[in-house]
Amino acid sequence: MKALSKIEVKEFLSDNLKNWSFDGNYLKRDFEFKTFVEAFSFMTAIALEAEKIDHHPDWSNVYNSVRINLNTHDAKGITKLDFDLADTIDRVFENYK
Ligand code: H2B
Fold first, then answer.
1. For the chain, how many structural domains are there in total?
2. Residue 6 pLDDT more than 90?
3. Which has the closest alpha carbon to 29: 77, 79, 88?
4. Atom of ligand 1 nearest to the CA of 73
5. 30 domain-assigned
6. Which domain holds residue 31?
7. What's the 5 CA to ligand 1 centre distance in angstroms?
8. How far is Cα 73 from Cα 90, in angstroms, rounded to an integer?
Protein backbone atom coordinates (compact mmCIF):
# COMPACT_ATOMS: atom_id res chain seq x y z
CA MET A 1 0.00 0.00 0.00
CA LYS A 2 1.28 3.44 -0.95
CA ALA A 3 2.16 6.04 1.70
CA LEU A 4 0.12 9.24 1.62
CA SER A 5 1.78 12.61 1.20
CA LYS A 6 2.20 14.77 4.32
CA ILE A 7 -0.45 17.14 3.00
CA GLU A 8 -2.91 14.29 2.42
CA VAL A 9 -2.28 13.03 5.97
CA LYS A 10 -2.89 16.47 7.49
CA GLU A 11 -6.07 16.97 5.49
CA PHE A 12 -7.45 13.56 6.42
CA LEU A 13 -6.64 14.14 10.09
CA SER A 14 -8.34 17.49 10.33
CA ASP A 15 -11.43 16.11 8.57
CA ASN A 16 -11.72 12.82 10.47
CA LEU A 17 -9.55 12.14 13.48
CA LYS A 18 -9.74 15.13 15.79
CA ASN A 19 -7.82 13.55 18.66
CA TRP A 20 -4.77 12.51 16.70
CA SER A 21 -1.78 14.60 15.67
CA PHE A 22 0.85 14.11 12.98
CA ASP A 23 4.52 14.83 13.61
CA GLY A 24 5.70 14.19 10.05
CA ASN A 25 6.35 10.51 10.71
CA TYR A 26 3.66 9.14 12.99
CA LEU A 27 0.00 9.60 13.86
CA LYS A 28 0.03 10.11 17.62
CA ARG A 29 -2.35 10.03 20.51
CA ASP A 30 -1.88 9.79 24.29
CA PHE A 31 -4.40 8.05 26.53
CA GLU A 32 -4.81 8.17 30.29
CA PHE A 33 -6.64 5.77 32.58
CA LYS A 34 -7.44 5.48 36.27
CA THR A 35 -5.18 2.49 36.82
CA PHE A 36 -2.45 0.38 35.26
CA VAL A 37 -4.89 -2.52 34.89
CA GLU A 38 -7.27 -0.36 32.84
CA ALA A 39 -4.41 0.84 30.63
CA PHE A 40 -3.22 -2.71 30.08
CA SER A 41 -6.74 -3.97 29.39
CA PHE A 42 -7.09 -1.23 26.74
CA MET A 43 -3.84 -2.37 25.15
CA THR A 44 -5.01 -5.98 25.18
CA ALA A 45 -8.27 -5.06 23.46
CA ILE A 46 -6.32 -3.14 20.81
CA ALA A 47 -3.86 -6.00 20.35
CA LEU A 48 -6.72 -8.33 19.40
CA GLU A 49 -8.15 -5.82 16.90
CA ALA A 50 -4.68 -5.09 15.47
CA GLU A 51 -4.10 -8.79 14.91
CA LYS A 52 -7.39 -9.09 13.02
CA ILE A 53 -6.37 -6.41 10.52
CA ASP A 54 -2.68 -7.40 10.58
CA HIS A 55 -1.65 -3.86 11.40
CA HIS A 56 0.06 -3.07 14.69
CA PRO A 57 0.76 0.01 16.77
CA ASP A 58 4.09 1.26 18.07
CA TRP A 59 3.31 2.10 21.65
CA SER A 60 4.54 2.54 25.17
CA ASN A 61 2.91 2.25 28.55
CA VAL A 62 3.90 3.97 31.76
CA TYR A 63 1.62 3.03 34.68
CA ASN A 64 -1.79 4.48 33.73
CA SER A 65 -0.82 6.13 30.44
CA VAL A 66 -0.47 4.73 26.94
CA ARG A 67 1.25 6.56 24.11
CA ILE A 68 0.45 5.32 20.62
CA ASN A 69 2.32 6.05 17.39
CA LEU A 70 1.03 4.73 14.10
CA ASN A 71 2.73 4.31 10.77
CA THR A 72 3.11 1.62 8.13
CA HIS A 73 6.63 0.23 8.33
CA ASP A 74 6.26 -1.59 5.00
CA ALA A 75 5.36 1.66 3.19
CA LYS A 76 7.70 3.87 5.29
CA GLY A 77 4.88 6.32 5.90
CA ILE A 78 1.21 6.75 6.72
CA THR A 79 -1.33 4.68 4.81
CA LYS A 80 -5.08 4.09 5.04
CA LEU A 81 -4.30 1.18 7.39
CA ASP A 82 -3.09 3.69 9.99
CA PHE A 83 -6.31 5.67 9.76
CA ASP A 84 -8.32 2.45 10.06
CA LEU A 85 -6.34 1.42 13.14
CA ALA A 86 -6.65 4.91 14.69
CA ASP A 87 -10.41 4.72 14.19
CA THR A 88 -10.53 1.26 15.79
CA ILE A 89 -8.46 2.50 18.74
CA ASP A 90 -10.83 5.44 19.25
CA ARG A 91 -13.79 3.04 19.24
CA VAL A 92 -12.09 0.77 21.78
CA PHE A 93 -11.35 3.81 23.97
CA GLU A 94 -15.09 4.62 24.11
CA ASN A 95 -15.42 1.58 26.43
CA TYR A 96 -12.91 3.06 28.90
CA LYS A 97 -14.33 6.56 29.37
N1 H2B B 1 2.04 -3.05 11.23
C2 H2B B 1 2.47 -1.84 10.92
N3 H2B B 1 2.20 -0.80 11.73
N4 H2B B 1 3.16 -1.61 9.80
C5 H2B B 1 3.45 -2.59 8.94
O6 H2B B 1 4.07 -2.34 7.91
C7 H2B B 1 2.99 -3.90 9.26
C8 H2B B 1 2.29 -4.10 10.46
N9 H2B B 1 3.19 -4.91 8.45
N10 H2B B 1 1.89 -5.33 10.81
C11 H2B B 1 2.56 -6.18 8.61
C12 H2B B 1 2.32 -6.51 10.05
C13 H2B B 1 3.40 -7.19 7.83
O14 H2B B 1 4.69 -7.30 8.38
C15 H2B B 1 2.74 -8.56 7.74
C16 H2B B 1 3.62 -9.53 7.00
O17 H2B B 1 1.53 -8.39 7.06
1. 1
2. yes
3. 88
4. 6
5. yes
6. 6-96
7. 19
8. 21
